[in-house]
Amino acid sequence: MQRRALLAHLATTGVVATGLASAAAATNDGYEPLGHVDLDIACEAVVGDDGETAYVATYDGFATVDIGDPEEPTVLAERDDLLADADLEFSGILDVKISGNRLAVVGPGNEDRTGELFEGFVLYDVSDPADPERVTDPYETGYHIHNCFLDGETLYLVANDFERNPLTIFDVSDDDPEEIGRWSLLEHEDDWGEIDPILWYLHDVYVRDDLAFLAYWNAGTYVLDVSDPTTPNYVSHVAQTTLEVNREVEPAAVSDYQLGLPGNDHYSAVDETGTILAVNREAWVSDAPEADRPGGIDIFDLSDPADPVMTASIEAPEAPDMSYQGGQWTTSHNFEIRDGWLYTSWYQGGVKIFDLADLEAPEEITSWRDPHTAGFWTARVAHDGGAYVASSTPIIPNADVQGGLYVFASEAGQQIEPPAFEGATEDDSSDDAASAGEDDEDRNGGADDVAGDDGEDTQDDTAAAIPGFTGPAAAVAGGALVLEARRRLVSDDDGG
Questions:
Q1: If we measure between CA atoms, which residue out of 266, 481, 256 comes closest to residue 375?
Q2: Where are the domains of the chain?
Q3: What topology does CATH give the domain 3-493?
Protein backbone atom coordinates (compact mmCIF):
# COMPACT_ATOMS: atom_id res chain seq x y z
CA MET A 1 0.00 0.00 0.00
CA GLN A 2 1.39 3.43 -0.95
CA ARG A 3 2.01 5.86 1.88
CA ARG A 4 -0.58 8.43 0.88
CA ALA A 5 -3.12 5.67 0.29
CA LEU A 6 -2.25 4.30 3.73
CA LEU A 7 -2.83 7.69 5.31
CA ALA A 8 -6.19 7.99 3.60
CA HIS A 9 -7.09 4.47 4.71
CA LEU A 10 -6.10 5.15 8.31
CA ALA A 11 -8.07 8.39 8.28
CA THR A 12 -11.24 6.34 7.90
CA THR A 13 -10.41 3.91 10.69
CA GLY A 14 -10.52 6.18 13.72
CA VAL A 15 -8.19 7.78 16.20
CA VAL A 16 -5.09 5.98 14.95
CA ALA A 17 -5.16 7.91 11.73
CA THR A 18 -5.82 11.41 13.01
CA GLY A 19 -2.22 12.50 13.29
CA LEU A 20 -1.08 10.68 10.20
CA ALA A 21 -3.79 12.05 7.97
CA SER A 22 -3.31 15.59 9.19
CA ALA A 23 0.44 15.33 8.64
CA ALA A 24 0.11 15.22 4.89
CA ALA A 25 -1.65 18.57 4.94
CA ALA A 26 0.64 19.92 7.65
CA THR A 27 3.67 19.56 5.42
CA ASN A 28 2.42 22.61 3.56
CA ASP A 29 3.11 24.59 6.73
CA GLY A 30 6.35 22.83 7.52
CA TYR A 31 7.25 19.34 8.65
CA GLU A 32 6.87 18.81 12.41
CA PRO A 33 6.56 15.89 14.85
CA LEU A 34 3.08 14.41 15.21
CA GLY A 35 3.55 13.72 18.91
CA HIS A 36 6.04 13.33 21.72
CA VAL A 37 6.28 11.78 25.16
CA ASP A 38 8.96 12.48 27.77
CA LEU A 39 11.29 9.77 29.03
CA ASP A 40 14.00 10.69 31.51
CA ILE A 41 16.68 8.75 29.63
CA ALA A 42 16.01 7.14 26.24
CA CYS A 43 18.45 5.11 24.18
CA GLU A 44 17.55 2.53 21.52
CA ALA A 45 13.90 2.20 20.50
CA VAL A 46 12.25 -0.55 18.49
CA VAL A 47 8.71 -1.12 17.26
CA GLY A 48 6.66 -4.28 17.77
CA ASP A 49 4.99 -6.28 15.02
CA ASP A 50 1.70 -4.45 15.61
CA GLY A 51 3.37 -1.20 14.50
CA GLU A 52 1.68 0.59 17.38
CA THR A 53 3.92 -0.21 20.38
CA ALA A 54 7.46 1.04 20.88
CA TYR A 55 10.00 -0.43 23.29
CA VAL A 56 12.70 1.90 24.60
CA ALA A 57 15.92 1.17 26.50
CA THR A 58 16.06 3.62 29.42
CA TYR A 59 19.52 2.92 30.88
CA ASP A 60 18.19 1.47 34.15
CA GLY A 61 15.54 -0.59 32.40
CA PHE A 62 13.04 -0.15 29.59
CA ALA A 63 9.70 1.44 28.78
CA THR A 64 6.79 0.41 26.58
CA VAL A 65 4.98 3.18 24.72
CA ASP A 66 1.60 3.08 22.98
CA ILE A 67 1.93 4.94 19.67
CA GLY A 68 -1.48 3.86 18.37
CA ASP A 69 -2.48 7.51 18.34
CA PRO A 70 0.63 9.17 16.89
CA GLU A 71 -0.41 12.55 18.28
CA GLU A 72 -0.67 11.21 21.83
CA PRO A 73 2.04 8.60 22.49
CA THR A 74 1.53 7.20 25.99
CA VAL A 75 3.88 5.35 28.30
CA LEU A 76 2.27 2.01 29.14
CA ALA A 77 4.90 0.62 31.50
CA GLU A 78 8.30 1.54 32.87
CA ARG A 79 10.55 -1.10 34.35
CA ASP A 80 13.77 -0.41 36.23
CA ASP A 81 15.75 -2.21 38.94
CA LEU A 82 14.99 -5.23 36.79
CA LEU A 83 16.90 -7.73 38.90
CA ALA A 84 16.29 -6.32 42.36
CA ASP A 85 14.61 -9.61 43.35
CA ALA A 86 17.87 -11.40 42.58
CA ASP A 87 19.91 -8.75 44.42
CA LEU A 88 21.69 -7.84 41.18
CA GLU A 89 22.34 -4.36 39.85
CA PHE A 90 21.40 -4.27 36.16
CA SER A 91 22.13 -0.88 34.65
CA GLY A 92 23.75 0.74 31.62
CA ILE A 93 21.02 -0.71 29.36
CA LEU A 94 21.42 0.89 25.95
CA ASP A 95 19.67 -1.68 23.77
CA VAL A 96 16.48 -3.73 23.62
CA LYS A 97 15.20 -5.85 20.74
CA ILE A 98 11.75 -7.26 19.99
CA SER A 99 10.69 -10.40 18.12
CA GLY A 100 7.07 -11.47 18.31
CA ASN A 101 6.07 -11.24 21.97
CA ARG A 102 9.62 -11.54 23.28
CA LEU A 103 11.75 -8.59 24.33
CA ALA A 104 15.48 -8.98 24.94
CA VAL A 105 17.05 -6.60 27.44
CA VAL A 106 20.84 -6.57 27.49
CA GLY A 107 23.64 -4.77 29.28
CA PRO A 108 25.55 -3.02 30.49
CA GLY A 109 26.34 -1.30 27.23
CA ASN A 110 29.78 -0.30 28.44
CA GLU A 111 32.45 -2.30 30.18
CA ASP A 112 31.90 -2.31 33.95
CA ARG A 113 35.26 -1.63 35.53
CA THR A 114 33.77 -1.59 39.03
CA GLY A 115 32.76 -5.25 38.95
CA GLU A 116 29.44 -4.34 40.56
CA LEU A 117 27.02 -4.62 37.63
CA PHE A 118 25.27 -7.69 36.29
CA GLU A 119 26.54 -8.44 32.78
CA GLY A 120 24.09 -10.39 30.67
CA PHE A 121 20.50 -10.45 29.49
CA VAL A 122 16.92 -11.25 30.42
CA LEU A 123 13.87 -11.92 28.26
CA TYR A 124 10.38 -10.53 28.80
CA ASP A 125 6.97 -11.60 27.55
CA VAL A 126 5.36 -8.44 26.20
CA SER A 127 2.16 -9.96 24.85
CA ASP A 128 0.58 -7.36 27.14
CA PRO A 129 2.85 -4.33 26.64
CA ALA A 130 1.31 -2.65 29.66
CA ASP A 131 2.41 -5.53 31.89
CA PRO A 132 5.73 -7.02 30.72
CA GLU A 133 6.67 -10.22 32.53
CA ARG A 134 10.17 -11.62 32.86
CA VAL A 135 10.27 -15.16 31.48
CA THR A 136 13.91 -16.12 32.02
CA ASP A 137 16.26 -16.09 34.92
CA PRO A 138 19.10 -13.59 34.55
CA TYR A 139 21.68 -15.04 32.17
CA GLU A 140 25.15 -13.88 33.14
CA THR A 141 27.57 -13.64 30.26
CA GLY A 142 30.67 -12.22 31.94
CA TYR A 143 31.01 -9.49 29.30
CA HIS A 144 29.24 -6.20 28.65
CA ILE A 145 26.72 -6.12 25.80
CA HIS A 146 26.51 -2.93 23.81
CA ASN A 147 23.95 -4.22 21.30
CA CYS A 148 22.02 -7.34 20.34
CA PHE A 149 19.56 -8.74 17.81
CA LEU A 150 16.63 -11.06 18.52
CA ASP A 151 15.51 -13.22 15.58
CA GLY A 152 12.69 -15.49 16.67
CA GLU A 153 14.22 -17.95 19.11
CA THR A 154 17.81 -16.91 18.43
CA LEU A 155 19.58 -14.10 20.27
CA TYR A 156 22.75 -12.55 18.85
CA LEU A 157 25.06 -10.61 21.18
CA VAL A 158 28.11 -8.45 20.60
CA ALA A 159 30.53 -9.91 23.15
CA ASN A 160 33.54 -7.63 23.28
CA ASP A 161 36.18 -9.10 25.56
CA PHE A 162 39.04 -7.03 24.09
CA GLU A 163 40.73 -10.26 23.06
CA ARG A 164 38.58 -11.77 20.29
CA ASN A 165 35.54 -9.41 20.31
CA PRO A 166 33.23 -12.19 19.13
CA LEU A 167 29.59 -12.48 18.17
CA THR A 168 27.85 -14.98 20.47
CA ILE A 169 24.62 -16.75 19.54
CA PHE A 170 22.04 -18.14 21.97
CA ASP A 171 19.06 -20.44 21.67
CA VAL A 172 16.33 -18.73 23.71
CA SER A 173 13.47 -21.02 22.73
CA ASP A 174 12.70 -21.80 26.38
CA ASP A 175 13.39 -20.30 29.79
CA ASP A 176 16.89 -21.78 29.89
CA PRO A 177 19.02 -19.91 27.28
CA GLU A 178 21.99 -21.77 25.84
CA GLU A 179 24.96 -20.49 23.86
CA ILE A 180 25.06 -22.42 20.60
CA GLY A 181 27.58 -20.57 18.45
CA ARG A 182 30.15 -17.80 18.17
CA TRP A 183 32.32 -16.14 15.54
CA SER A 184 35.18 -13.69 15.67
CA LEU A 185 36.79 -11.50 13.05
CA LEU A 186 40.03 -13.26 13.96
CA GLU A 187 38.70 -16.45 12.40
CA HIS A 188 38.79 -14.70 9.04
CA GLU A 189 41.88 -12.52 9.51
CA ASP A 190 43.86 -13.31 12.63
CA ASP A 191 46.31 -10.43 12.10
CA TRP A 192 43.70 -8.10 13.57
CA GLY A 193 44.65 -9.63 16.89
CA GLU A 194 47.87 -7.63 16.78
CA ILE A 195 45.96 -4.33 16.76
CA ASP A 196 44.45 -2.51 19.71
CA PRO A 197 41.02 -4.22 20.00
CA ILE A 198 39.30 -0.90 20.55
CA LEU A 199 39.85 -0.26 16.82
CA TRP A 200 38.01 -3.45 15.82
CA TYR A 201 35.33 -3.39 18.49
CA LEU A 202 32.17 -5.27 17.45
CA HIS A 203 29.65 -2.50 17.83
CA ASP A 204 26.40 -3.96 16.50
CA VAL A 205 24.72 -6.91 14.79
CA TYR A 206 21.73 -7.07 12.45
CA VAL A 207 20.16 -10.27 11.08
CA ARG A 208 17.83 -10.90 8.17
CA ASP A 209 17.13 -13.98 6.03
CA ASP A 210 19.98 -16.09 7.47
CA LEU A 211 22.55 -13.33 7.00
CA ALA A 212 24.14 -11.49 9.91
CA PHE A 213 25.78 -8.09 9.47
CA LEU A 214 28.52 -7.26 11.97
CA ALA A 215 29.79 -3.68 12.33
CA TYR A 216 33.44 -4.16 13.36
CA TRP A 217 34.43 -0.47 13.56
CA ASN A 218 37.66 0.14 11.62
CA ALA A 219 37.80 -3.45 10.42
CA GLY A 220 34.61 -2.92 8.42
CA THR A 221 31.21 -4.61 8.21
CA TYR A 222 31.19 -8.39 7.89
CA VAL A 223 28.45 -10.52 6.36
CA LEU A 224 27.97 -14.00 7.83
CA ASP A 225 25.81 -16.92 6.79
CA VAL A 226 23.94 -17.91 9.96
CA SER A 227 21.51 -20.38 8.39
CA ASP A 228 23.10 -22.78 10.87
CA PRO A 229 23.68 -20.52 13.88
CA THR A 230 25.96 -23.10 15.47
CA THR A 231 28.51 -22.62 12.68
CA PRO A 232 28.48 -19.07 11.25
CA ASN A 233 30.39 -18.75 7.99
CA TYR A 234 32.05 -15.73 6.41
CA VAL A 235 30.41 -14.43 3.22
CA SER A 236 31.98 -11.03 2.50
CA HIS A 237 32.85 -7.69 4.02
CA VAL A 238 33.21 -4.02 3.18
CA ALA A 239 35.66 -1.59 4.74
CA GLN A 240 36.68 2.05 4.51
CA THR A 241 40.15 1.47 5.83
CA THR A 242 42.73 -1.31 5.75
CA LEU A 243 44.70 -3.42 8.14
CA GLU A 244 47.84 -1.68 7.00
CA VAL A 245 46.46 1.74 7.94
CA ASN A 246 45.48 0.52 11.39
CA ARG A 247 48.85 -1.12 11.84
CA GLU A 248 50.48 2.30 11.57
CA VAL A 249 48.39 3.90 14.33
CA GLU A 250 50.63 4.89 17.23
CA PRO A 251 49.39 4.07 20.75
CA ALA A 252 49.02 7.73 21.65
CA ALA A 253 46.80 8.29 18.59
CA VAL A 254 44.40 5.37 19.09
CA SER A 255 41.70 7.60 20.61
CA ASP A 256 41.79 10.00 17.66
CA TYR A 257 41.56 7.15 15.14
CA GLN A 258 38.76 5.51 17.10
CA LEU A 259 36.73 8.73 17.22
CA GLY A 260 37.39 9.93 13.69
CA LEU A 261 37.12 8.80 10.09
CA PRO A 262 37.87 6.74 8.10
CA GLY A 263 36.33 3.54 9.39
CA ASN A 264 33.96 3.70 12.37
CA ASP A 265 31.50 1.09 11.07
CA HIS A 266 28.87 1.57 13.75
CA TYR A 267 25.59 0.08 12.53
CA SER A 268 24.52 -1.81 9.42
CA ALA A 269 21.15 -3.01 8.18
CA VAL A 270 19.41 -4.19 5.03
CA ASP A 271 15.95 -3.53 3.63
CA GLU A 272 13.17 -6.11 3.62
CA THR A 273 14.28 -7.43 0.22
CA GLY A 274 17.83 -7.98 1.41
CA THR A 275 19.24 -6.18 -1.63
CA ILE A 276 20.06 -2.77 -0.13
CA LEU A 277 22.68 -2.50 2.59
CA ALA A 278 23.46 0.66 4.53
CA VAL A 279 26.49 1.10 6.80
CA ASN A 280 26.86 4.17 8.96
CA ARG A 281 29.87 5.79 10.60
CA GLU A 282 29.68 7.25 14.07
CA ALA A 283 32.53 9.74 13.99
CA TRP A 284 33.58 13.19 15.11
CA VAL A 285 36.30 15.65 14.18
CA SER A 286 39.54 14.59 15.85
CA ASP A 287 43.29 14.92 15.36
CA ALA A 288 43.47 11.88 13.08
CA PRO A 289 44.59 12.97 9.58
CA GLU A 290 41.24 12.41 7.80
CA ALA A 291 38.92 13.05 10.74
CA ASP A 292 37.62 16.39 9.49
CA ARG A 293 33.86 15.73 9.55
CA PRO A 294 31.16 13.72 11.33
CA GLY A 295 30.25 10.26 10.06
CA GLY A 296 27.62 9.62 7.40
CA ILE A 297 26.04 6.59 5.72
CA ASP A 298 27.28 4.45 2.83
CA ILE A 299 24.78 2.70 0.55
CA PHE A 300 25.52 -0.68 -1.08
CA ASP A 301 23.86 -2.80 -3.73
CA LEU A 302 23.65 -6.21 -2.02
CA SER A 303 22.07 -8.11 -4.90
CA ASP A 304 24.98 -10.51 -4.48
CA PRO A 305 25.82 -10.78 -0.76
CA ALA A 306 29.20 -12.20 -1.69
CA ASP A 307 30.03 -9.04 -3.62
CA PRO A 308 28.54 -5.85 -2.10
CA VAL A 309 28.97 -2.83 -4.37
CA MET A 310 29.00 0.65 -2.87
CA THR A 311 26.82 3.06 -4.83
CA ALA A 312 26.70 6.30 -2.84
CA SER A 313 27.47 8.09 0.40
CA ILE A 314 25.26 10.40 2.43
CA GLU A 315 27.17 13.07 4.30
CA ALA A 316 26.30 14.15 7.83
CA PRO A 317 24.92 17.62 8.56
CA GLU A 318 27.50 20.05 9.89
CA ALA A 319 27.67 22.10 13.07
CA PRO A 320 29.96 24.89 14.30
CA ASP A 321 31.73 22.46 16.67
CA MET A 322 31.88 18.87 15.41
CA SER A 323 34.25 17.49 18.07
CA TYR A 324 33.23 14.80 20.55
CA GLN A 325 33.06 17.27 23.44
CA GLY A 326 31.54 20.08 21.39
CA GLY A 327 27.94 19.46 22.48
CA GLN A 328 26.75 19.66 18.86
CA TRP A 329 26.62 16.09 17.60
CA THR A 330 25.49 15.52 14.02
CA THR A 331 27.06 12.15 13.30
CA SER A 332 24.86 9.38 11.95
CA HIS A 333 23.34 6.93 14.41
CA ASN A 334 20.81 4.09 14.04
CA PHE A 335 18.41 3.81 11.11
CA GLU A 336 15.99 1.57 9.23
CA ILE A 337 15.33 0.87 5.54
CA ARG A 338 11.76 0.12 4.49
CA ASP A 339 9.95 0.27 1.14
CA GLY A 340 12.85 2.04 -0.53
CA TRP A 341 13.08 4.77 2.10
CA LEU A 342 15.97 5.19 4.52
CA TYR A 343 14.87 6.55 7.93
CA THR A 344 17.86 8.10 9.69
CA SER A 345 18.87 9.72 12.99
CA TRP A 346 21.71 12.24 13.40
CA TYR A 347 21.60 13.09 17.08
CA GLN A 348 21.17 16.91 17.21
CA GLY A 349 21.34 16.93 13.42
CA GLY A 350 17.78 15.64 13.59
CA VAL A 351 15.92 13.00 11.63
CA LYS A 352 15.87 12.63 7.86
CA ILE A 353 14.26 10.37 5.28
CA PHE A 354 16.06 9.52 2.05
CA ASP A 355 14.44 8.01 -1.03
CA LEU A 356 16.68 5.21 -2.35
CA ALA A 357 14.86 4.70 -5.65
CA ASP A 358 18.18 5.54 -7.31
CA LEU A 359 20.91 3.84 -5.27
CA GLU A 360 23.51 6.06 -6.89
CA ALA A 361 21.72 9.24 -5.89
CA PRO A 362 19.81 9.04 -2.58
CA GLU A 363 17.39 11.95 -2.34
CA GLU A 364 16.68 13.67 0.95
CA ILE A 365 12.92 14.14 1.09
CA THR A 366 12.25 14.84 4.76
CA SER A 367 14.07 16.49 7.64
CA TRP A 368 13.43 17.92 11.10
CA ARG A 369 15.68 19.00 13.94
CA ASP A 370 15.78 20.99 17.15
CA PRO A 371 19.39 20.76 18.36
CA HIS A 372 18.58 22.53 21.63
CA THR A 373 15.91 20.00 22.60
CA ALA A 374 16.40 16.67 20.84
CA GLY A 375 19.35 14.39 20.07
CA PHE A 376 18.06 11.40 18.13
CA TRP A 377 19.43 7.92 18.81
CA THR A 378 17.38 6.02 16.25
CA ALA A 379 14.58 6.14 13.68
CA ARG A 380 12.23 3.13 13.41
CA VAL A 381 9.28 2.52 11.12
CA ALA A 382 5.80 2.27 12.67
CA HIS A 383 2.20 2.00 11.48
CA ASP A 384 3.14 -0.21 8.52
CA GLY A 385 5.23 2.59 7.05
CA GLY A 386 2.76 5.38 7.74
CA ALA A 387 4.86 6.80 10.57
CA TYR A 388 8.16 6.36 12.38
CA VAL A 389 9.46 6.89 15.89
CA ALA A 390 12.71 8.49 16.99
CA SER A 391 14.14 8.34 20.50
CA SER A 392 15.91 11.41 21.87
CA THR A 393 18.71 10.81 24.37
CA PRO A 394 19.90 13.34 26.97
CA ILE A 395 23.27 11.60 27.25
CA ILE A 396 25.34 13.83 24.97
CA PRO A 397 28.36 15.56 26.55
CA ASN A 398 28.02 19.30 27.06
CA ALA A 399 24.52 19.41 25.57
CA ASP A 400 21.17 20.07 27.16
CA VAL A 401 18.81 17.97 25.07
CA GLN A 402 15.95 16.05 26.67
CA GLY A 403 14.97 12.39 26.72
CA GLY A 404 11.81 11.28 24.98
CA LEU A 405 10.14 9.48 22.11
CA TYR A 406 8.90 11.39 19.05
CA VAL A 407 6.46 10.21 16.39
CA PHE A 408 6.71 11.54 12.83
CA ALA A 409 4.71 10.98 9.66
CA SER A 410 6.37 9.09 6.83
CA GLU A 411 5.89 11.89 4.36
CA ALA A 412 8.06 14.12 2.28
CA GLY A 413 8.42 17.50 3.93
CA GLN A 414 10.89 20.06 5.19
CA GLN A 415 10.89 21.98 8.43
CA ILE A 416 10.50 25.73 8.14
CA GLU A 417 13.45 27.63 9.61
CA PRO A 418 15.05 24.80 11.61
CA PRO A 419 16.76 26.13 14.75
CA ALA A 420 20.47 26.79 14.28
CA PHE A 421 23.17 25.46 16.53
CA GLU A 422 24.50 27.90 19.07
CA GLY A 423 27.45 29.64 17.46
CA ALA A 424 26.24 29.08 13.90
CA THR A 425 26.73 32.02 11.61
CA GLU A 426 24.37 30.88 8.90
CA ASP A 427 21.67 28.32 8.33
CA ASP A 428 23.20 24.90 7.89
CA SER A 429 20.01 22.96 7.21
CA SER A 430 21.13 22.00 3.70
CA ASP A 431 24.54 20.57 4.51
CA ASP A 432 23.63 17.01 3.60
CA ALA A 433 24.79 15.75 0.25
CA ALA A 434 24.54 12.37 -1.39
CA SER A 435 27.58 11.79 -3.55
CA ALA A 436 26.74 9.37 -6.30
CA GLY A 437 28.69 6.53 -7.76
CA GLU A 438 31.72 6.53 -5.47
CA ASP A 439 34.29 3.94 -6.43
CA ASP A 440 36.61 3.55 -3.47
CA GLU A 441 38.66 0.39 -3.42
CA ASP A 442 39.16 0.56 0.34
CA ARG A 443 35.41 0.69 0.99
CA ASN A 444 34.61 -2.32 -1.16
CA GLY A 445 37.82 -4.20 -0.67
CA GLY A 446 38.53 -5.43 2.75
CA ALA A 447 41.49 -5.87 4.80
CA ASP A 448 44.49 -7.95 4.06
CA ASP A 449 47.25 -7.10 6.50
CA VAL A 450 47.42 -6.06 10.17
CA ALA A 451 49.47 -5.34 13.16
CA GLY A 452 49.31 -3.13 16.14
CA ASP A 453 50.04 -2.51 19.73
CA ASP A 454 48.87 -3.80 23.03
CA GLY A 455 47.07 -0.51 23.52
CA GLU A 456 46.29 -0.89 27.22
CA ASP A 457 47.24 2.70 28.05
CA THR A 458 45.50 4.17 25.04
CA GLN A 459 42.27 2.39 25.87
CA ASP A 460 42.18 4.33 29.13
CA ASP A 461 42.48 7.56 27.16
CA THR A 462 39.63 6.78 24.78
CA ALA A 463 36.97 9.46 24.94
CA ALA A 464 34.12 7.28 23.69
CA ALA A 465 31.14 7.04 26.00
CA ILE A 466 27.53 5.99 26.26
CA PRO A 467 25.75 7.24 23.17
CA GLY A 468 27.84 5.32 20.68
CA PHE A 469 31.00 3.31 20.37
CA THR A 470 32.36 2.25 23.72
CA GLY A 471 35.67 1.12 25.08
CA PRO A 472 37.05 0.48 28.54
CA ALA A 473 37.09 4.17 29.45
CA ALA A 474 33.38 4.40 28.82
CA ALA A 475 32.49 2.90 32.18
CA VAL A 476 33.74 6.09 33.78
CA ALA A 477 32.85 8.59 31.05
CA GLY A 478 29.45 7.07 30.40
CA GLY A 479 28.56 6.98 34.06
CA ALA A 480 29.47 10.63 34.41
CA LEU A 481 27.22 11.52 31.48
CA VAL A 482 24.29 9.68 32.99
CA LEU A 483 24.82 11.36 36.36
CA GLU A 484 24.89 14.72 34.64
CA ALA A 485 21.71 13.89 32.73
CA ARG A 486 20.02 12.91 35.97
CA ARG A 487 21.30 16.05 37.68
CA ARG A 488 19.70 18.14 34.94
CA LEU A 489 16.43 16.25 35.31
CA VAL A 490 16.32 16.81 39.08
CA SER A 491 17.24 20.48 38.58
CA ASP A 492 14.46 20.88 36.03
CA ASP A 493 11.96 19.24 38.36
CA ASP A 494 12.99 21.66 41.12
CA GLY A 495 12.61 24.63 38.83
CA GLY A 496 16.37 25.10 38.44
A1: 481
A2: 3-493
A3: Methylamine Dehydrogenase; Chain H (2.130.10)
3-state secondary structure of 442: helix
What backbone torsions phi and psi does residue 486 show, to the nearest 5 degrees? Answer: -65, -35
Q: What angle do CA 457, 460, 465 make, to 5 degrees?
A: 155
Task: State which amino acid sits at residue 158.
Answer: V
Backbone angles phi, psi at 3, to 5 degrees: -60, -45
The predicted-structure confidence for 129-144, as pLDDT tens digits, reads as follows 999 999 999 999 999 9
Q: What dihedral angle (degrees, nearest 10) is formed by the CA atoms of 10, 11, 15, 20?
A: 80
Give pTM, 2 decimals. 0.86
* E strand map for 59-153: 61-66, 74-80, 95-99, 102-107, 120-125, 133-134, 139-140, 148-151
User: In whole numbers, what is the pLDDT of the chain averaged over residues?
Assistant: 85
Count of Cβ atoms closer than 10 Å to residue 135 Cβ? 16
Side-chain-side CA neighbours of residue 392 (13 Å): 31
Amino acid 134 reads R
CA 241/CA 244 separation, integer angstroms: 8
- C-alpha dihedral, 127 to 129 to 130 to 131, nearest 10°: 50
Q: What is the pLDDT of residues 72-122, one digit of tens each?
A: 999 999 999 999 999 999 999 999 999 999 999 999 999 998 999 999 999
Gap between the Cα atoms of 366 and 343, Å rounded: 9
